[in-house]
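Can anyone check this?
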Amino acid sequence: MAMWRYVRGRARDRGAAAVEFALVVPLLLLLVMGILDYGRFFFDSVSLRQGAREAARQAVVQVYGASCTTGAVGAKIACSAKAASDVTIGTPKVYIPAVTGGWAQGKQLLVCMESKEQGTGFVPLPAAGILRTKTYMSIEVGGSVDPSYSADTAPSGIDWATWCS
């Protein structure tokens, strides 16, 4: 008789595991998707920063990558920045203001980049998914160069000059 009670009690608990699984899975999926979104977001943040730095470095020594040899100097720098930034979930945009006081050795070149990131939508991204970076680099090779470039529209809708100066 005691054996029969044990079997009947076990039969009542049969669906408990399925209910517990159904309660835990949404939280687990949200956690996993959040980890993926934030991981890609921070990877793109580092990539964008590296792209701006690499393009500024190429510009101040006036040696550009093999794929970015045509067009004006500003277009070459922008091409180098986009090529060097390995952004996975956004499209990098570049802005390069004119060098204050003209292109001369020791002056500062400024390269600004911005990207609007699109995640999975399960979790909100910081700063509404807008990544921004700016890099200053001292010019090493003098000459008569105008590196300004403003062909890209800022994805945030904010004018470049308000934050890139």
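Reply from J.R.: I decoded it. The chain has a mean pLDDT of 86.
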